[in-house]
Amino acid sequence: MRFLQQARWNDSSTLIHPPGFYIIGFTTLPFANFYFIFLAFVYVVTVLFNTMLIYIITVDHRLHNPKFMAVGNLAVVDLLLNTCIIPGMLKTFLTKDNFVPYNFCMLQMYVTYACICLELSAIAVLAYDRLVAICFPLRQCTINTMKKMLCILGCLWTVCLGVPTFSTSIMTWLSYCNSVNVYSYFCDYAPVFRLACNDNTLQWAMASVLSILFLTGPLSFIILSYVSILIAVYRMKSMESRVKALATCTEHIILVAITFIPMLTIFLVGLLAKVKIDPDLRVLSLSLATCTLPCLNPIVYSLKTKEIKSKVVAILWRVKVQAVNI
Fold it and tell me: What distances in angstroms separate CA 193 from CA 13, 104, 106, 270, one per listed residue?
């Protein structure tokens, strides 16, 4: 802590950036060993399933359509999100070294929040695909084209990469002259700016605004999409058509539930709860909500679609036949 002792002697107008931060989110968590084993399993499943999904969509030209462009986009984001978080957590656990250099901390913060924004936006894009397919079945091929889907994804990537650029850059305006212990599972935005010894009002406002926008923006679009879908389904004449249309939305509704319910619950409890939440419970809940989602996405949604499932079965059958011949 020699840095902190020296920092207190600096002029108050000088920005003080520490060599790095110490991530201490799991240092007091009981049975942390089992949790990190679970995270290692989650990461292996995430890489295996999402890589397989990206491979299938890339090599099968029949899947080169707007729907599977959106599915592939979600798989890429899933890989990036868990690769940004879990290896660092496992490195801390295995080497017992929880120090993160300052610049790497800022980079991890940026990439993580960019990926979370992309994750929530990607799920909203899948809702758009269902909206067009059910509400405009005869015009689907003209409304939801590859070019339009590429433009939508390009705009979302631009926004989700641009907004965290500003929010992370203003973190460098803060001085850290007290503690450098970050009580989280990565270089989290709020736990880091709370360590600052100068005014962090702008960073606090940015964190509040982005939390609301990242959560309520995609969720509002998804809710409005499903309201439109329900109206379109209600207008269908036969019960068979209604059931068939709603059945195509089941996996996506499950995906929305496992994505937004945990995040909204944690956010609202932290905002409205009168009782102070156990910090260990908060860190555990946030890490579970963030890290398990990229693992569950391909299992719950992508790999259950008819086209992907048939391709997976064909690949597994080919592997089995080759193994028998050997």
Answer: 18, 16, 11, 17
How distant is the alpha carbon of residue 307 from its chain centre?
25
Secondary structure letter of residue 180 according to DSSP: -
Neighbours of 272 (CB within 10 A): 7
The CB-based long-range contact list for 169-175 (8 Å cut-off, 24+ gap) reads 170/202, 170/203, 170/206, 171/106, 171/109, 171/203, 172/15, 172/17, 172/106, 173/15, 173/202, 174/15, 174/198, 174/200, 174/203, 175/7, 175/14, 175/15, 175/16, 175/17
Number of Cβ atoms within 10 Å of the Cβ of 216: 15
At residue 153's C-alpha, the angle toward residues 151 and 156, to 5°, is 110
pLDDT at 316 over 70: yes
User: Helix H segments across the chain?
Assistant: 2-7, 32-59, 66-95, 102-135, 140-143, 146-169, 189-193, 201-234, 239-247, 250-272, 279-300, 306-325
| Cα angle, residue 128 at apex, residues 125 and 129 outer, rounded to 5° | 95
Contacts (Cβ under 8 Å, ≥6 apart) of 28: 280
248-266 burial code (b ≥16 CB/10 A, e <16):
ebebbeebbebbbebbeeb
Establish how many alpha carbons lie within 13 A of residue 121's alpha carbon, considering only the half-sphere containing its beta carbon. Answer: 22
pLDDT tens digits, 60-103 = 888 889 989 999 999 999 999 999 999 988 888 888 888 999 99
Q: Supply the pLDDT for residue 131.
A: 93
H or E, element range at 99: strand 99-101
The helix (H) or strand (E) run that includes residue 65 is none
Q: Which residues contact 105 (CB under 8 A, 6 or more apart)?
A: 20, 21, 182, 187, 192
- Residue 164 to residue 206: CA distance in whole angstroms: 10
Instruction: Please work out, in degrees rounded to the nearest 5, the angle formed at the alpha carbon of residue 167 by the alpha carbons of 163 and 172.
Output: 145
